[in-house]
Amino acid sequence: MWPCYTSRTSRVQVDGMPKVSSGCVSVGLMLCVASAMAQADPHTMKATGKVDPRFQSFNVEMVEVIGGRFWKPYAATPVRDMPVPTGAFGIDPALYEQRTPVDLSDPRLRKMAAALGPTYLRVSGSWANTVYFQDKDAPAPAKPPEGFGGVLTRAEWKGVAAFAKAIDAEIVTSFSVTAGTRDASGAWQPQQAEAFLRYTKSIGAPIAAAEFFNEPTFATIANVPKGYDAQAYGRDFATFKPVFRREAPGAVLLGPGAVGEGVPLGVGGLMQMLPTAQLLQEPGAAEVDAFSYHFYPTVSERCAAHAPASAHIGTTPEAALTDAFLESTRTGEQFYAGLRDKYASKKPIWLTETGQAACGGDRWAATYLDSFRYLYQLGAMAKTNVQVVMHNTLDASDYGIINEKTLTPRPDYWAALLWHQLMDRTVLDVGEAPSPNVKLFAQCSKAGKGDVTLLALNLDRKQAHPISLAEGGERYTLTAASLQAGSVDLNDKALAVAEDGTAPTLQGAAVARGRIELAPVSITFFQIHARNRACLAASQSE
């Protein structure tokens, strides 16, 4: 594959860390290396699919909007000193924190989020399953009405609508199914959903898409009736669907929004699980516009108590760059794609909630280390034709891409911004990578003109690895002082937003065709001036 390894390469040491550099020494070398990578020639890469214009999206949890208990971000306490979980579902109550509603009018937050637009803004989560929509202009009561766990006011939802408009987002949500929405027989009633949808329409913020409720595979945490089963879900969905069609015409009906299968999360012994296959067997339950699912590769240490040894629990920083961890996103997609093929054939797939780890993310979710998982997941899901990927969260707990206390961007924010600015919708066949430690993804470039954006992840912690460029362009390389650093450099320059939250213009460094060295644990986007035929055709059709 790489017959020219013995040729001279250029290596640059900066602060003891090797940096990306061009190692071209002759025309002969360029031709030799280019021929070794002929199947990945950006001029001739073929299109394999196209993703939604709002492919890269994010969640703001309902609990952020209304206030309540959510996962407390980790302090600097070592893992071994964390309290042993002993509370409900094996979780120590001390691992939650009571939070006031997020200020979605904050100009700094809006500017940072707007830099990622257009996007979908999903407002859902477990709290959405039990929230009461107060359909009048008044403050929330001291206690929610009987049968509900929280209150969403008109003012709060109007704030969500204003935030969405300011950042060029379309709203995705779900509905309450708790005891307060049910009649004496336990059947779901639509009055709350109707009021919520009508008010949303009245303020000029129509719902773009919605799931019936959040994660029905674990319906017990939604305060549904005891013994709630697939038949009850099918009955309730049959009531919900015509209401949604009537009150939100044109909106995408998503479902089922399941989680916890394909890759076991180890909580099945703590909560009753309703397998997705059973839910979809109910008459009409698979009649959706897009098949949605949620995915976490693991559960954070917060929720690790009592989990069986076979569960994906407590992934370590040492394992974060392994194929076993990264490839689990494909495993999850394959599981749910199989169910889609069986019950909702040809429907597009949306991944409507995902992150580094369920239960708020591990403590290194907020570091440079997680940017490899984040970008690998985006690339892998685009290749499998998943239309939308919604990261959890924008700015809450450790898996937020923005620090909720300081409103400073975390490394995943910069990874997201690079993807947003460089990756267009058309996905390309990049061929094989030169090494198992190098992961490659390619899509048409946002720059147009037939340009190709190549994303190269070098997962090797010690060694640089070469790739070949058949054409020149610009290079955007993310590195950090350490894998668990909370800040990153772009082409050796520190990244930061302005005081008002304005993101800087991300500038690439010129790169010539030929052999390029990828530094250990580096992330590089290449914008290649290839005049790719598939990309030229895509530009003309849009």
Report on the structure:
The chain is of the alpha/beta class and 542 residues long. It has two domains: 145 residues, Sandwich (Immunoglobulin-like), CATH 2.60.40; 322 residues, TIM Barrel (Alpha-Beta Barrel). Strands 4, 17, 18, 19, 21, 22, 23, 24 and 26 form a nine-stranded antiparallel sheet that branches. Helix 6 links the parallel strand 12 and strand 13. The protein is globular. The N terminus is likely disordered.
Summarize the structure.
The protein is of the alpha/beta class.
Domain count: the total is 2
Count of helix runs: 12
How far the N terminus sits from the C terminus, by CA atoms, comes to 37 Å
Given the C-alpha coordinates, what overall shape results?
A: globular
- Strand fraction band? 15-25%
Low-confidence segments: 1-39, 76-89
Instruction: Name the helicity range.
Output: 10-25%
Radius of gyration: 24 Å
The CATH superfamily of the largest domain appears as Glycosidases
Q: Class of the largest domain in CATH?
A: Alpha Beta
Structural class: alpha/beta
CATH architecture term of the largest domain? Alpha-Beta Barrel
Reported for the largest beta sheet, the result is: 9 strands, antiparallel
Number of strands: 26
- Mean pLDDT value: 88
